[in-house]
User: Fold this.
Amino acid sequence: MKSTVWTSIDFNAFGVQSDFIRVPHSSNTSAYGWIPVPMLCLKGGDGPTALLTAGTHGDEYEGQVALRKLVHDLAATQLQGRVIILPALNQPAVAAGCRNSPLDGGNLNRLFPGSAESGPTAAIAHYVATELFPLSDLVIDLHSGGSSLEYLPMSLARHGRTKGEAQAIRDLITCFGAPYGMITDGSGGGAGSTLYAAAEQQGIPALTAELGGGPTLSEYGLSIAENGIRRVLGQYGIASGLDCADSDQTLLCRPVGTAGNLYAPLPGLFEPFVKVGERVVPGQRAGRLHRLDDALGNPVDLSFSAGGVVCFRRFLTLTSTGDALFGLMTELET
Assistant:
């Protein structure tokens, strides 16, 4: 079905254009209104197209800031190709400072490839998948751990459907240059319903970057995002005049999986014993939960059932049954 979202941007026109994607939304106070999602298109000469997104979750800020800063540099740079930027892809969630949309509760990164008729969040996903992906030669979606997680700075990508696609994805990870790169099937969260999974299904090299954690801005994560995007745009020949730092070698990893992750067995106050980036072994103490319902009761000690490197840790102390406390990854076998 054709997308119900529209924009005044002419993607074939040269120069810098700024507008919205207009997402139809009928509310109590606006029967025929639309949601303004900011979008910019910058086009120079002939060349590939990079699609850059952030704010897929509204409480993740490194990507939002990096893309807003990038626009000003690109506007003063001679381009050989096209860059499409959406710095606040889930604009309602961004405006509310929360992970999911306050309009329909939608988690944008769990709704791809979306639907034109299932609410505003699904309509955004559908527009990206049906209108923007066909224009794109590479996709970068910038994230962080948001309010609930502290994440080891890394890029995440799918395996690719063919050997050629797999190599293109790994080349993108290497060029972006985050300290870690995880090749995943998405089983830890989202499976095939994430933005980068939908891009993979259309044969587009794509990655997601996790750049920090907590409801704040990581200076280190912001630097990774800024330099990584500039390296990629230079490597693809889209914008060769951007200054950027050299990257360190990216260590390729894979997730240990949900069986190796650690989840809260009961509600309580979470006291962690290890940090992101630490290597742990099976049986090692991970932390403890202090019961909310029994101040005299003994806390529940938690241990890892598998070994690996801690790639994320719960940021919030107040914890409910089923909350993810730790995630593990291990080096990818060549």
About this structure: The mean pLDDT is 94. The longest strand covers residues 15-25. Helices lie at 62-75, 91-96, 120-132, 163-176, 195-201, 219-235.
